[in-house]
């Protein structure tokens, strides 16, 4: 019998905040989910409320028609689906793993499936724009840009370590009591991971800009760089989580931006104890599966159903071999990456840098 990590999947629904079985209903449902259910879902994900409390919220949504459990047409109305994959340095290593997914989807959908492993995201974006690519796995930043440029929508999110996101965090020395909020970092010496880093730049800098603590005067990357120089005593792009934390430990900077687990992952315990988290800024979403705006609702539903089958033990190795995700769960663009996308939009000129980051032909 097929086994499924049911709690992990329900957790993912909670963390995403979608709570909707029918994809065609999600846009309407998003506005109907009461705040108390969203709050309980978050608490349940953190272990603060029990399963019964969380499931009572699910029952409420079903009884009030927010979750539609009725059956829908899942007819695939195309002969071929072309799926793109995240550009990677070693495409020759990814391709066999992608082909395993291709074979699986062909069996599930009863049509031909073709895979594309490009050297850059522009190929996927243009492919979706002109109908040559129907769907793609994407990192969060490029997914938002693809949505903005082509109207493509996120329908699935990756679940990694039981979560659909990780937390962007501000770090400082434990002995430093002058920095107690994100706003306190303005005017200080700071270390970002890189200019395209999600938790190490986009989330903290985007939050400062959208919160009107920093103003960008202009509409290009030069204006963004000018704002950095004007609003911090000094700033550096360290090159990664560990390098940023090391600058902090060495006293070169007052603050290091990064993820909530970076010190535990990259530092010895002795050095971990020298640091403290100032604040958690907010979530950075996991990778997503995007579908073209031209894909019919019935094909989309059939494709999502097929991908959900990857969460079962018999097929799960196919998914884990691709990018290390343990499950794929339904979502929408606005619920999973919409907030994060506003930070990309706020940081002028950053969109092209994000795409260039993944361009393996350069």
What key phrases describe this protein's structure?
five-stranded mixed sheet, 45% helix, alpha/beta, 362 residues, globular, D-Maltodextrin-Binding Protein, domain 2
Task: Explain how this protein is built.
This protein has helices spanning 6-16, 26-30, 35-45, 51-63, 91-109, 121-129, 140-150, 198-210, 221-231, 241-249, 262-266, 269-272, 297-308, 316-323, 333-336, 338-346, 350-357; strands at residues 80-84, 112-116, 135-138, 153-159, 165-173, 189-192, 234-237, 255-259, 275-285, 288-291, 327-330. The chain is α/β, with parallel strands linked by helices. The chain folds into two domains: 1-164 and 288-362, D-Maltodextrin-Binding Protein, domain 2 (3-Layer(aba) Sandwich); 167-284, Periplasmic binding protein-like II (D-Maltodextrin-Binding Protein, domain 2, 3-Layer(aba) Sandwich), CATH 3.40.190.10. The protein has a six-stranded mixed β-sheet with strand order 2-1-3-10-4-11, with helices on both faces. Strands 7-6-8-5-9 form a five-stranded mixed β-sheet, sandwiched between helices. Helix 5 (91-109) links the parallel strand 1 and strand 2 (112-116). The longest helix has 19 residues, at 91-109. The radius of gyration is 21 Å and the shape is globular. It starts with 5 loop residues before the first helix and ends in a 5-residue tail after the last helix. The model is unreliable at 11-27 (pLDDT under 50).
């Amino acid at each position: 019998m097929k086994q499924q990590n049911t709690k992990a999947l329900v957790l993912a629904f909670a963390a995403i905040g979608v709570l909707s079985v029918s994809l065609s209903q999600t846009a309407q449902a998003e506005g109907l989910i009461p705040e108390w259910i969203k709050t309980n879902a978050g608490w349940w994900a953190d272990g603060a409320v029990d399963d019964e409390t969380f499931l009572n919220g699910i029952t409420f949504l079903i009884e009030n028609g927010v979750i539609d459990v009725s059956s829908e047409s899942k007819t695939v109305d195309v002969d071929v689906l072309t799926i793109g994959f995240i550009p990677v340095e070693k495409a020759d290593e990814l391709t066999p793993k992608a082909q395993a997914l291709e074979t699986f989807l062909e069996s599930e959908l009863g049509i031909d499936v073709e895979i594309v492993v490009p050297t850059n995201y522009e190929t996927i974006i243009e492919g979706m724009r002109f109908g040559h690519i129907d769907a793609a796995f994407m990192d969060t930043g490029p997914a938002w840009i693809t949505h903005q440029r082509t109207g493509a929508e996120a329908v699935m999110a990756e679940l990694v370590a039981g979560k659909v996101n990780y937390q962007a965090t501000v770090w400082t020395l434990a002995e430093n009591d002058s920095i107690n909020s994100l706003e306190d970092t303005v005017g200080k010496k700071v270390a970002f991971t890189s200019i395209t880093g999600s938790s190490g730049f986009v989330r903290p800098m985007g939050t400062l800009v959208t919160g009107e603590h920093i103003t960008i005067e202009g509409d290009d990357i030069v204006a963004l760089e000018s704002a950095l120089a004007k609003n911090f005593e000094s700033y550096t792009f360290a090159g990664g989580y560990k390098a940023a934390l090391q600058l902090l430990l060495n006293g070169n900077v007052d603050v290091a931006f990064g993820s909530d687990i970076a010190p535990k992952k990259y530092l010895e315990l002795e050095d971990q104890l020298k640091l403290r988290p100032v604040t958690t800024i907010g979530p950075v979403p996991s990778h997503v599966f995007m579908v073209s705006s031209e894909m019919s609702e019935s094909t989309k539903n059939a494709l999502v159903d097929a991908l959900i089958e990857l969460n079962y033990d018999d097929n799960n190795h196919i998914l884990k071999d691709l990018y290390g995700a343990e499950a794929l769960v339904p979502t929408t663009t606005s619920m999973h990456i919409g907030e994060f996308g506003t930070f990309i939009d706020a940081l002028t000129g950053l969109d092209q840098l994000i795409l260039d980051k993944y361009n393996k032909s350069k």
